[in-house]
Each structure stands twice: as C-alpha cells, then as structure tokens.
Amino acid sequence: MTSNPPSRALLVAAFAAVYIIWGTTYLAIHFALETIPPFLMTSFRLLLAGGVLFVLAKLSGAPMPTRTNWRAAAVSGFILFVLNVSLIVWSQGPGGLPSGIAAVLIATVPMWIVLLTWLRPGGTYPGGMVIAGLIVGFVGILLLFSPDVTSGSMLGIVAVLCAAFFWAFGSLYAKNAPLPQSTTMATAMQLLCGGAMQFVLALLGGELVILDLGKISVVSVVAMLYLGIAGSVIAYSAFVWLMRVSTPTKVATYAYVNPVVAVFLGWLLASEELTPRTLLAAGVIIGAVIMINLSKGKSLPRLRRLRRFRRTVEVVNVTT
Hints:
The chain contains 14 helices and no strands.
C-alpha cells in the first residue's frame, strides 16, 4: 500500500481496464482466429507483449536477466503460455467453444489452486467452505455438459478446464522459480519464451506454409494487436498497479466480472447462443469461485498462503 492514496479516477480507470479488457480478450481470440492460424496468432501477440514489457522493464532500471532466470522463464512460459494458451485458442477454433463459456471455465483457476495446494506433499485440509465451493463449482461444470452439447464443444470444455489447471500449476511454479525480482521483467521473459515456443509449434504444424496473407482480414489483425497491447500490456500493468495500491481481495473481483463481460459480448457481437442452462452453469461456477475466495475456514495458515498465491494466479492474464 502506498502512503498517499491514489485518486479515485485512477482507481476507476485501472479497475475498468482489468474488468473490461480482460473480459473482452476471449471475444478477440474468436475474431483473430477467423483468418489467422492459431499458433502464429498466439506467437505474435505474446512476442509483441513480451517485447514491449521487456523494454519497459529496462527503462525502469531492471538488470539484465541471468541464464538461470531465462531457464525458469522457459519452464513457466511453456506451462503458462504454451499449454494454457494453446488449449484455450484451440478450444475456440472453428466449431469449438463459445468465447463466453471459455471465460467462465477459466474462472475455475482458484479451484485448481486449492486442489493443488491441498494435494501436494505437506498439504492441509482447506476448510469446509472451500470444500463446499469446490463441490458447487463441479456441479456448475457438469451443467455445461448438457445432452445437446456437440462433441466439438465437449472437447473444448475439457480443453479449457485443462488450460485452467495448467495456469494454476504454472502460477504455483512461478511463485518460487528463480525469476528476476522485477515483476515486469519476469513477465516479459515468460511471454517471450512462450511466444518463441508458439512459433516453433507454428513451424511444426506447417502454418507458415498454409498462411495466405491475402486472406487475413483487418478484423483479425486488429483483434491480434488488441490481444497483445490491450490484453497483455495495458490490462496487466493496471493489475500490477492495483495490487500495490489496493487489496488483493478487491482486485480478485475481476475473476467474477470477466466471465460476465465475455458472455455478454459473445452474445452481442459474435451471435453466440445463450441458453438458460448455460447462464445457470455460469452463475453456479462464478458463485463457487466467490465462495472459495471469501472463505474463512479453520485452516488459517493455508488460507493465508492461498491468498498470497492469488498474486501469481493471474500474473499476466494473456489467455484472455
């Protein structure tokens, strides 16, 4: 917390960036994938954001990273920005999952954090309210597997749940990894490593061969630039600043708002269908996340550690 409280205008602007921009990134992915191959699109946006943040980190006086720093960034970048992002992008490909549902499922990250910290060696019981939240969240996920769900959408649901798991796992790894002290530099390095790996995947998948620059639409290019600059640079910078001047509990409320924004914009701009069952499932899952984040069980030491983990759970939300 800073000694002089920030102005209300700056707080409103920062929260708006985190709430709205991160909520719109799922729809931006939808439009970017219309005419740009997935791995190339993801590679460009990650390299763009990583390059910008790297320059900003150097301008702020951050020292050059060491070989050990780069090794840790490569591991976390692979987990966060190859396994996680690739699954999200793939799930929203042609005939895949609506962007709003993808955002709702990504909101399960706190659930995975609880399970991973509970099941790891030395883990302790997380408390009754947290367990109840996990059960409620599981019910919400089951509601999405309705009889009328297509096989493509069902695979998409599984893919995004796996993506949420990898984000949680990668965040916990990055928590203690030998990354630079500068958060901006550490994030830039992970983005750059993830972007480079995505480019390798694009090469292996033959995306450069099938790429037809003449067929790439202006909408897809704008969406890709939006993901790199607005989603990864602007919104993330606002998130880091809010974590310094506000409380983690208040900042974490973006996890409840992002899916609502994504579902509404998907319906409004991408003609994504909103069924009563989908809306009910979204409400149940978001409610479960709220239960987990606000729980105050008996296992106080573990819950305090979980609250500290929230700093890294969303560190660089670029899947969105």
